[in-house]
Amino acid sequence: MQLSRWQWISFLVGLAILLLGGILLFRGEEKVTIQAAEAVQSELPELPAGLPARLGDLEFRVVRERRKVMAVKFSTGEQVWESDGLEAWIVPGAAFPLDVSPEGYLWVANVGRKRLEQLDPQSGTFIASWVPAEPFAGCCNPVRFAALGGGRFLTMEKGRRQARLYAPSGELLEIIVPDLSASEFNYEIRKTPDKIYLIDHQSDFGQARIWEFDPHE
């Protein structure tokens, strides 16, 4: 069957309308998707800067590439000591945190051995180790921690993907955050004189999340 000229024109016009409608529908869907992605993004509010790991004129640092902990004089930059801990530091990844408690105790996470080690801040000599009553999960933990007053520890742990509060005995006191995101690179503990901020920079919920913890309670 042959179509007349007017039938062909009507057919082509209808086809053009269908194509144009499909293009507009695709663009509309694309726009909705972008708006939805932007809606779940949130900027991290301005928070106080964290306290450096210092005691008097001594500042404590880690050198991950060499698996060393060291103390330098803050005023001059002169190195005072360098420490391997008890049996050397095992650092499989990027996490190699340390902290100074309010009482002036220096603690370093030997993440590959899944324990915290206390060093003499004046000499770097090993003093003691601490482990939780229920051993840390995974290959290496804690990836972040804060040494609190009275011998308590606040940790951010991969594997379990939780932030936890422990007693000096190692007993679990409280699960502060039950559902951290999958990557340890998103975790941060920012310690200030009055508050401790636990931050998950890119959570599975699509936005940064912040929890405030009062270390004096």
Summarize the structure.
With 217 residues, this protein is an alpha+beta fold. It has one helix spanning 5-39; strands at 54-55, 58-63, 68-73, 79-83, 98-100, 106-110, 115-119, 126-130, 144-147, 153-157, 162-166, 172-177, 187-191, 196-200, 209-213.
What do these coordinates show?
Helices cover 16% and strands 33% of the residues. It is of the alpha+beta class. The chain has two domains: 1-41; 54-213, Methylamine Dehydrogenase, Chain H (7 Propeller). The strands form four sheets. Strands 1-2-3-4 form a four-stranded antiparallel beta sheet, with no helix packed on it. Strand 10 and strand 11 (162-166) form a beta hairpin. The protein is globular and about 90 Å long. Mean pLDDT is 84; it is low at 22-42.
